[in-house]
Amino acid sequence: MNSRERVLTALKRTGVPDRVPLEFDLCRQLTDAFGAKLGIPIHYTTSYFEDLTYRISANELRTAMGSDCVVVGASLPRGYQHPRTPDGYIVNEFGMVMRQGPLYMEVVQPPLRDATTVDEIMAHSFPDPLAEGRFDDAARYIQLYRDEYFIIGDLELTMFEMSWHLVGMEKFLMDLAAGEDYCTALFDRVLAFTTAVGNRLVELGVDALWFGDDVGAQNGMLLSPGMWRREFKPRYAAMFAEFKRANPDVLIMFHTDGAVAPILKDLAEIGVDVFNPVQPNVPGHDPQTLKDTLGDRLAFFGAIDQQHLLPNGTPEEIEADVAEKIRILGKGGGFMCAPAHMMQADVPMESVAAFIAAVKKHGVYP
């Protein structure tokens, strides 16, 4: 099997591939380090939300290192550069003032931090999702890799996360709980942007759309399952159905960090094909339980601990964990092995290599 065939077989649960497929994402520091080591020039595709840049960049390096997937997405418009404040912070297309934090970009000034009305939401300037040049890199990568590799179109910050980044998390969660009308208007505007980007990626020929809204924390959900079902579930369902109408074969992949077991059946009900990142070491995410209860409805993508194991584990410990996750989640297919998040600068290069080698060693089916 080539990489595309391998991933399709596993994630569509149509059979057992020759081995468990592999995917990984690297932060800027690791990308630059491996690019230098392997002599591969790095091309960065700057995303409309900066931390997504490293999901949709460096596909030349990703494939050379063994990934079965290529990840693409919407970039900044052709020729566009972020304006900067006198302090050197960038102002992105949504009006968020952002600075580089220890690991991720941080929104230091949400543009809708004082919003209270629907009119204020409607008056706020959103970027053009189909701006000239926004899909130049995506189209190039799809054309280059589509026959050999599984192509993922990235749409993280789908609704919940983009909304709270625009407003500020504390205010947004309080206003959502209070039933403020502007929240609904904000969801609609964010989803209009996301849907337009997704439709264009489907037109270009991606194999999957990778949505993402982190609604889980380490010990539970950030909002109640009831609120999630009331406010978010029907909107996701309608959006997923639209993409499936455009291409019934496109896979719906949904990323949500943290302990989100209470809504996994809901995700399957509304058309999610693949659950990511299967964050380990949180309540409700026991691999055997997930496989036994949901393995006939969902494929799993992720499961390798990024919080402790990859930064601190020995190569032998990493190999043992990869082998165990493959044994459980990969039984009969239905699993793509990956770190539970983008590998950050605290992960040694040797550990990245150990992870990749372990998947290739233990992922081969008899």
Folded structure, characterized:
The protein is globular and about 60 Å long. By secondary structure, it is α/β, with parallel strands linked by helices. The strands form two sheets. The chain has a seven-stranded parallel sheet with strand order 1-5-6-7-8-9-10. 42% of the residues lie in helices and 13% in strands. The longest helix has 24 residues, at 181-204.
Radius of gyration: 20 Å
CATH architecture identity: Alpha-Beta Barrel
- The termini sit apart by 14 Å
Largest sheet: 7 strands, parallel
State the helical fraction.
Answer: 40-55%
Q: What is the CATH class designation?
A: Alpha Beta
Count the DSSP helices. 15
Beta fraction: 5-15%
What is the 3D form? globular
* CATH-derived topology: TIM Barrel
Low-confidence stretches: none
Helix-strand pattern: HHHEEEEHHEHHHEHHEHEHEHHEH
Q: How many domain regions?
A: 1
